[in-house]
Specification:
The protein is an alpha/beta fold and about 180 residues long. It is built from six helices and six strands.
Length: about 180
């Protein structure tokens, strides 16, 4: 099993945090091989940001792939720039609060979640990436949910007040991903 994932959006949407959390949690809590490869645009907030995460039970040959099983797009420009890298039958995860353009491929699975609006609704606007990570894990079963919950606990161990809201945000996304997986 090997999963090639790209997460793409604007700086400030938590793209790197999402990828790094997935990669670190997976490497610490499983025996899977993982790579994380970030790519930053010129500006920190508002500039482009994307990262690649590869999860495999075999050694990983390259940290970057242009033939993706999974693509998470947090904004419209990322959709247009990277949708061609998604394999037929691949999974496209869309932040439907921001990405409203029609998706013109009919050979992929589209999983939409209004994660920006959901984060605002729970009064935790910075949790949109954790919600989307939940959607991803719920729809793909790339790693067990406990792996990410452990990762959230580790990430916020010095800020314990942030653990529970982020675990709850992750579980919200998990339910969306699971529901969309069951509906297919």
């Amino acid at each position: 099993m090997e999963r090639n994932l790209m997460i793409a959006g604007f700086g400030g949407q938590g793209v790197m945090t999402m990828g790094k959390l997935l990669a670190e949690a997976t490497s610490q809590a499983t025996d899977l091989n993982v790579t994380f490869f970030p790519s930053y645009g010129a500006a920190m907030r508002g500039g482009t940001a994307n990262c690649y995460v590869v999860i495999s039970d075999d050694p990983i040959g390259a940290p970057v792939s242009y033939s993706l099983e999974d693509l998470v797009v947090m904004n419209g420009p990322s959709l247009h720039k990277f949708i061609g890298n998604l394999k037929p039958g691949g999974n496209l995860f869309v932040n439907s609060t921001i990405v409203t353009d029609p998706i013109e491929r009919d050979d992929i699975n589209i999983i939409e979640a209004p994660v920006t609006q959901m984060a605002i609704d729970i009064n935790n606007p910075r949790a949109l990436n954790v919600i989307m990570l939940g959607v991803y894990v719920g729809a793909t079963d790339a790693v067990p949910e406990e792996v990410i919950i452990k990762g959230i606990n580790h990430k916020f161990e010095k800020k314990p007040k942030l653990i529970e809201p982020n675990v709850e945000a992750f579980k919200m996304g998990l339910e969306i991903g699971r529901k969309q997986k069951a509906d297919k």
